[in-house]
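Chapter summary example.
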Amino acid sequence: MTGAPGAPDPTGYDPDRIKCVVWDLDGTLWDEIAVETPTDELPAPRAEMLAAIDALAARGVLSSLASRSAPAVLDRMSAVPEVRERFLAPQVSWQDKSESLRRIAKDLGIAVEALVLVDDSPYERAEVEALLPGVRTLDPGEVPALLAAFEDREVTPESRERVRRYRTEETRRTEGERFQGTREEFLRWCDMRLTVGPAALDEVPRALELAARTHRLNSSGLTPDRLRALAAADGHELYTARMSDRFGEYGIIGAALVDRTAPGAWSVPLLALSCRVAGRGAAAAFLFWLMERARESGAGQFRVTLRPTDANLEMRILLRQAGLRRTEDDDDRDDGAVLARSLEGGDLPRPPAWLHVSPRKDADA
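The structure predicted for these 365 residues follows.
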């Protein structure tokens, strides 16, 4: 394996698409059946499964639970924090496993297709495969092959922090449910701040990761290898966006490649943002900041490359709301359509009122 983001993997798994591994309990995480134990103590987890969960977490892959069992099992697990804290958005109930996976994806804010199910039951795997064909299912014996797919992959600081940040996101969600007020009032209360600037050298791996792993808020699906090559080319600049709020740091949540080789125009071959910030105005704020900076630099036109997919409807709506429209000279392009708008005269769109946007202190250095 080369270890380069986006490179084909001989194990048959695509690490760039796997964001969360969902584990069954009985017969998978542990040997026994929890509801049949004579005491309130949980069965002892298999050491190799805990090690696999930790190895995935170190590479930014989340873990959750989906078990057809009594909900009381999850309550009992809370008494063993060193086990319970490994899992986000767990589902332990008698509902169908496919429904559990849908709920996990919704709670985590990721696509169902970004999940992998590990389950010892052929029936449960077949049920998920039938109702959620985009989800890969594994027998526990296939876990080593899954881990092998992540060997030699470049691990960014954001990857190492991803599990902790999703835990922080659970806190945000809980506070949002408790908040007495409108959604906009809650977002204002969160005191969200977006800082944008040219990417530092140590931020490039994260930009490549965003290009590979984002789908909902990805304009073109530009591959990491292509992004790396273009970012190093003359007349191109790579920008990144960081976000924080009263709960903590989100880290680098956005990347944009800007092509300034055409006179009087800024072209964006890739705009990509983490799905963790969907619905909070960060994608719009980043786009509008780029448009404003383009006009300040003297550009009269702003362009974005768009390759429509089943997943990026949210990005397409955003570009349209920003006034970008398809140009008439891109019919022969095989890398996506080009959407453009004039920057001359009139006001540009403004970021949402609840989001503070500023250039990083080193942005003009």
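To summarize the output: The chain is about 35% helix and 20% strand.
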